[in-house]
Each structure stands twice: as structure tokens, then as C-alpha cells.
Amino acid sequence: MNPPSALTPESQPESDKKTCPNCGFATSGNYCAQCGQQTHLHKDTFWGLISHFAAHYFHYDSKFWQTLKALVFAPGKLTVAYQEKKRQRYIPPISLYIFVSIIFFLLLPVFQQHVVHINSEGAAKSHIEKLEGKDSLANGSIEQSLVKAAAAKGDSLKAADRYVGRVGDGLLSDLRAHPEAFKEKILHAMPKLFFFMIPLLAALLKLFLIRQKQFYFVDHAVFALHIHSFVFILCLIGLMNPFPGLQGLISNFILLICFIYYIIAINRVYKSGWMGSVLVGLGTAALYFIALMGLIVLGLWLLFALGH
């Protein structure tokens, strides 16, 4: 005689059967056997929505705290675990980055007075007037050089000189008249900028570690996601500094910590040795910041100059 089979929705008493509101499958118990959704759902309260949000990221089983602990105190550990397919215990890299970056960029405007030193329209005008005064001699020299070059090479440089001057005047005019709008545009563009920097860092790592064929581009991208997540967390802590007068010192200290963390993470993930890790770290970090500054300048040009 065959052993009795497990109870199925069809074998359950009619009084115990329920229909899953999500997929319509006849089921019993607290969860649908077809899609996994809870069968006992009630109308959510506001705090219920908050708890669901927290449950998604924290999972109530310390997954978030395990991830945060590994990210902050064990550079490279999350990337190694991901490569070794030990992924259930930690938050996925892209989810972690999105969550941390959302928190960072939501709180950044609250603390921006410690980051952006132009705190008022009057201060902005004062800074710009000082810059204009200090740069007047340099501007005169540049104009004379451009005029001489234009006379030698034709009208093209004259047109370029006029265009560059118009763009510069437009930028100064916008910043002088609307400093808050200037800051707002920069803050609005920063999330997109740093999201673009992730594949750029991955490409730099791929280039510098090209001999390590076992690492694919996606491996470098996961590493870059974890590095950026840590940097955002550390910068967020730095923004909470209660001593604005020490902001410069704290910013330099944060940069140093980030670089040391980066070197340790490279050594743990790629096993390139300390000397190799330092060389890779210095090279990729230098090119990263050059690209970052270039993109910031280009972004300001696109945001303001093309609008004139």
C-alpha cells in the first residue's frame, strides 16, 4: 500500500480552502503554494507600510546588519562572498548601493551648509566678486593671447573666444543671481554622475588587472558597487560633523580612510599583494578623480552654458 500523500489544496476540506488574492490559486494555510504570497492580508496602516519597507531591506533576520558590518569593517568581504556565491546572507550589491545612495542624497541637502561654503546669496556674490577681481589680470592676459592667436590663425579663434567668454559670463551670472538654484542643480545631478562612475571604476580595474582573466567586468562592477556604498556611508558620517570649523580636516581624514579601505579591499578581492594593490589603487584612483572632475566641468557646461 502506498503511503498517504501530502495534503494538497484539492484534498483539504472545503472550509479550509482559500483563494490566493495574487494568483487565484486554491490554497490553504498562511501562504500560497503557487506564488508564496500571504493569504491572510489586511488593509495596511501607515506604520504597516513602514514595517514592510524595513522588512524588505532589513529582513528582520539581521541581513542588513550583517551586510553593513561586513561592508564597513571587512573591506572586500562582500565582494568575495558574492564571487563565491555566498549571497543569501547579504543584501545584493545593487540593492545595497541604491539604498545607501538614496539615504545619502536625501540627507545631503540637510547638511549641505557644511559641504557647500556658499551659504547665502550675499556670500555667493562676495566670493564671485573676489574671484573676478583676482582673475582680472589673468583674464586680460588670456584675452591678449587669444587676440594674437586669432590674428595669426583667422576668425575661428575669435569666434571661439567670443563663445567661451559668453559661456563664462553666463555661468558667473547664473551663480551670482541664483546661488541656491546653482547648488540645487549640482545636488540633483550628483546621483546620476556617481551611478555613471561605477562602470567607469569597473573598467579601470579591468584595465589595470587585465592579466587576472578569472575576473570578468561584472566582478569589477560588484566591487565598485561595494566601494561606492562604503564611501557614501563614510561621507554621511562626515556630514554629521558638529564642528564646521574642522570640516576641512575631517574631509581629508575621510579621503585617507577611503583610500586605505580601497587598498585593503583590492588586496582581499584580487590577491595582488600589498605593493600591487597600492599601485592599482593609486592608478585607478587618480584616473577616477580626473574623470570625475572632467565630468563635473562638462556637466556644469551642459547645465548652464547650453541654456544661454
From TrEMBL:
Alphabetic keyword roster: Membrane, Transmembrane, Transmembrane helix
A Pfam family it matches: DUF3667
InterPro entries the record matches: DUF3667
TM helices/strands, residue ranges: 94-111, 193-209, 221-240, 246-266, 278-304
Coiled coil: none
Protein name stated in the entry: DUF3667 domain-containing protein
Species this chain originates from: Arachidicoccus rhizosphaerae
